Amino acid sequence: MKRIFLGLAIHNHQPVGNFPWVFEEAYKKAYLPMLEALEKHPGIRLSCHYSGPLLDWLVEHQPGFVGRVAELVKRGQAEVMTGGYYEPILPIIPDEDKLGQVRKMTEALEKLFGQRAMGLWLAERVWEPHLPKALACAGVSWTIVDDAHFKMVGLSDKDLFGYYITEEQGDVVKVFATSKHLRYSIPWRDVSEVIEYLRHEAEEDGSKIAVFGDDGEKFGIWPGTYEHCWQKGWVEKFFTALEENSSWLTTIPLGEYVGSFSALGRVYLPAASYAEMMEWALPANKSLELASLKHKLDIEGMQDVAQYTWGGFWRSFLAKYPEANILHKKMLRVHHKVYKARSLGNEECGLDDLWMGQCNCPYWHGVFGGLYLTDVRTAAYKHLIRAENRADALLHKGRRWLELEVADVDCDGQDEILVEGDALSLHIDPADGGAIFQWDLRKREYNLQSTLTRRPEPYHSAIAGPGEKKSEGLVSIHEAVRVKEPSIHHRLHYDRYPRFSMLEHFLPLTTSLNDLSSSLYTDLGDFAGQPYGHTVRKEADIMGVTLRREGRIASRGQTASLVVEKELLLKRGHENFDVSYKLVNLSRQPIEFLFGSEWNINLLGGGNNPQAYLNVPGETQESRLSSPREILNSQELTIGNRGLVIALRLRFSPNLRVWAFPVESISNSEGGVEAVYQGTCLFLHIPVKLDAGKSLSLVLTWISEE
Predict the structure, then answer these.
(1) pLDDT at res. 301
(2) pLDDT tens for residues 304-330?
(3) Which one of 55, 153, 169, 358 has the largest count of C-beta atoms within 10 Å of its C-beta?
(4) Could you tell me which residues come within 8 angstroms of residue 67 by beta carbon, excluding any fewer than 6 positions away?
C-alpha cells in the first residue's frame, strides 16, 4: 500500500506590547479551539510552537491551558518546538543574544512541558547561511524553512518530501521545507482536496513526509477563519479525515521523523524567507511589479519560469524603512551597553528587556501591521530604554550623568550627534536637516520621536478608487486586499521627509493647515532634509549643540541667501531643553515667508484616545491628539498622555501660531487596510518679513512636567 507521513507544525505568536484583548481574542478563537480539537482527536500528532510573549501570557492568564498542552506532550501526541524566546529575527541579532534567547526558551519548555525541545521554529522563516553554527551551539537539531529556500538552489516540489542536512563550519542542522501548496490549501480548500493531494503523493516505500508549517492564528483569527474553521467545522472535518485515512496517511511530529528516517541529502540554502516576505522587502514599486509578474506567469501557465522569480532580502526592510533601521541600531547600541554592564558581574543588567526589544514584529511590514503598529513599536522602545537604564546605572555607578558623542550610529556613512544622560537622550542627524530622530525620556522609558513616515506601499494601488477589491470565496490574507473604509483613498498622503522633529520649513504665506497635513505645500527653502554644519560644547553640567546651514529661499520671484542657526542646550539630570533659532537674511532684498519648526511626537493618541491631549492656557476644553486644530496666537501649550504619565509643556517666544494634526498612515494588517495613527505633528510657525541683512530670533523651551 502506498503511504505518506504528514508533519503538522503550528506556530502561535503574539508580539511584545500587543493589546491584552488581542491575546484574549486569539486564545478564545484560535489557541483554545485547536487544543480542544486535538484532545478530541488523540490520533492527530503534531509539532507545536508557542512564542515566549504568548507563553508568558498563557502561564499568567490561562495556566490550565498550559497544563493541557503538557498532557498532549506527555502522551506523545505533541512535541514542543523551541525558538528565540521573544521571537526575534535570529540573523539580525548578535550571536550572544541568539544563543541566550534560544536557551531561555528551551529551558522554559522543559520546565513547563517536561520535554527537551530539539526542533526550532524560525521566526518568519528568515534564513541566512551562517545560522547553522549558532543553532547547533544552542542545541538545535532541526528547523523548518520555506520551500522557496530550496527552490532557489534548484530543487523542486518533488524533492522536498523529507529533510536535508546543512552546515556552517562543520556544525550541522537538519532542515525541512514547509509546503506552499499545503499552506495555501489548509484551511482554505475543501478537506477532500487536501486528502487527495496527499494520496497522490503517497508512495510504496512510505518514507515521504509532506510538511505543513504555518501560523496558528490562521485557524480562527485571520478574517473569516473562526466561522470557517470552527463554526462550520473545517478543522473537525480535516482531523476526522486524517483519522479515517490513517491506514496510509500518518501524522507524525517532525522530531520523531528525524529520528526514524535518513536525510535526503545535503543542501546549502541562500538568504531567504517565504515568497511573500521577499516581495514585501522590495521597494514598493518593485514589490508591485514582482507580484504582477508572478500573477501573469501563473495565468499563462508558466510556472516553470515563475519558480525562478524571487524578491528581495529580509534585511532590506532596514533600508526600506529608516524607522526600522533606527530601532535596530538602537537595539545594537543597547546590546553593547548591556553586555558591558554584564561583564561587571551583575545579572540585573537589562538582558531580558534587551531581548524583549528584539521581538521581530516592529522591524518589518507586509500584510501584517508590524512596524506600522504604534503600540508594538512603542513597546520595543520601552524595553530597550529600560534595558539601557539598567545597564547605564551600573556603568555610571548610579550617578547623574550627561555625555555627548559624535558617531555614525545608524550606519549611513554620516555622523550623528548623541546627547545622552540619565534623564534625557536626544539623537540628532546633522546630515538630514539637523533634525532630532530619537527623543528618550529615560525615567519614563519612552521614545517620544517614534513617529512613522507616510510612504507608498504596494497595496495602495488596490485602494486608489472607491470600494473594495472583492475575492470569491474564502482566501488567504496573502491573496486579498480588504479595505475597512470605502473612502480611505482620499486619505492617502505621502511625506517628503522623515517624520523627525526640529525640521525647518519656509512656506508661502497663503499655506493652510490642510496643505501641510496633506503634503500639498510648497517649500520655498532648501533646509528640511538637507545637511547642517555643527559644533558642540561641553561644560560640567551643560551640553550645547549648534547646527547651522546657509541655504537658499525663493521670495518675490527671486532667490535669496538665508542662514538658519539653531542651538540646543541640555542640562545634566533634567528632561527639559531649549532650542534657540536665529534666521539671518544675507541677501540685498527683503524676503517674506511663513517660517515653521516641525515637531512630530508620538504619545499614543490614536483612536481618539481620551488620555492623550493638547491643552492651551486660557482654554477650558482640551483637544485630542488625533484631532486637527489651529492655535492662532499663543506663548505655550501642553501635550501629554495621562496613561503614560507624560506631560510636555512647550513655551515659545515670541508668540507663535500652531497647527496640530494627526499623522496617519494608510496601512495593511490581517483585518484589512485602515488609517493608523502614527503621531501628532506640531507645526510652530510665524509670518516673517525680513529686510536685507536683518535677523529674527525665536526660543522654544520643552519642559517635562513631573
Answers:
(1) 85
(2) 777 788 889 999 999 999 999 999 999
(3) 358
(4) none
User: pTM score, two decimals?
Assistant: 0.95
Q: How far is CA 472 from CA 179, 192, 219, 223, 480, in A?
A: 24, 20, 19, 14, 10
Q: Looking at the annotation, which residues are catalytic? A: 124, 215
Beta carbons within 8 Å of 220's beta carbon, 6+ residues apart: 26, 29, 30, 33, 34, 226, 229, 230
Longest dimension (CA), the chain: 95
The residue written with cell numbers 481620551 in the block is 610
pLDDT tens for each residue of 576-605: 999 999 999 999 999 999 999 999 999 999
Using CA atoms, how far apart are residues 547 and 565, in angstroms rounded to an integer? 6
Residue 664: domain span: 458-605+658-705
- Counting the structural domains of the chain, the total is 2
* Mean pLDDT value of segment 246-261: 97
Whole-number Å distance between alpha carbons of 468 and 486: 7
What CATH number has the domain bearing residue 521?
A: 2.70.98.10
DSSP readout, 266-287?
B----SB--HHHHHHTS-HHHH
Residue 405 lies in a domain: no
Cell of 488: 480611505
65-83 pLDDT per residue, tens: 999 999 999 999 999 999 9
Distance CA 668, CA 484 (A): 10
Neighbours of 466 (CB within 10 A): 11
> What is the DSSP secondary structure assignment for residue 695, as one 8-state letter?
E
